[in-house]
Amino acid sequence: MAKKKQQTPKDIFNLMMATDFFSQWLGVELIDVSEGFCKIQICIRKEMLNGFGIVHGGVTFSLADSAFAFASNSYGKVSVSLNASMTYAKQGKIGDFLVAEAKKLTLTNKTGTFDVTVTNQTTEETIALFRGTVFRTEKEHIDLNIT
């Protein structure tokens, strides 16, 4: 019997992105991923702006939430959000590149807590801080197409 291949955090990222149509719409690009860590970026487009001509808070939150999801699922267990909050410090504008970097704070068999820093790479400023907690299910990410 063939031994099942161990999925890497990048395998899991690719598996999740294949059906994460919202992250695809955001234009998420992977910078780095490892167990308990994910760094992604997007470029702010016109349709991401609010009525003040700055990036909509929901876009910034969604970017952080995506990094949080990829980092928390990187261990192989399907993990779903229990709670998340964000503090906004600065604004982003059209054409700016925003980077979200998620890092594990705590991890148990049932929960995990992660911090995400969102940085505007154009201005080199931190624009938001996010903290989220996940429930870690018993289900594992399985992709029969990975060889």
What does this structure look like?
The protein is of the alpha+beta class. It has a six-stranded antiparallel sheet with strand order 1-2-4-5-6-3, with helices on one face. The radius of gyration is 16 Å and the shape is globular. Helix content is 23%, strand content 42%.
For the structure shown, list the relevant keywords.
6 strands, 147 residues, 42% strand, 23% helix, alpha+beta, Thiol Ester Dehydrase, Chain A, single chain
Mean pLDDT: 93
Give a count of the beta strands, DSSP E runs of length 2 or more: 6
Order of helices and strands: HHEEHEEEE
Low-confidence stretches: none
CATH fold-type name: Thiol Ester Dehydrase, Chain A
Content of β-strand = 35-45%
- Structural class based on helices, strands and sheet pairing: alpha+beta
The biggest sheet, with number of strands, parallel, antiparallel or mixed sense and barrel status, is: 6 strands, antiparallel
> How many separate helices?
3
Q: What would CATH call the class?
A: Alpha Beta
Biggest sheet: strands side by side, in what order?
1-2-4-5-6-3
Rg is 16 Å
**CATH level-two architecture:** Roll
| The named CATH superfamily | Hotdog Thioesterase
For the termini, the CA-CA separation is 15 Å
Percent of residues in helices: 10-25%
Number of domains: 1
Describe the global form.
globular
Q: How would you briefly describe this protein structure?
A:
By secondary structure, the chain is α+β, with helices and mostly antiparallel strands. It has helices at 9-19, 21-26, 57-73, and strands at 29-34, 37-43, 77-88, 97-107, 111-120, 125-140. It has a six-stranded antiparallel β-sheet with strand order 1-2-4-5-6-3, covered by helices on one side.
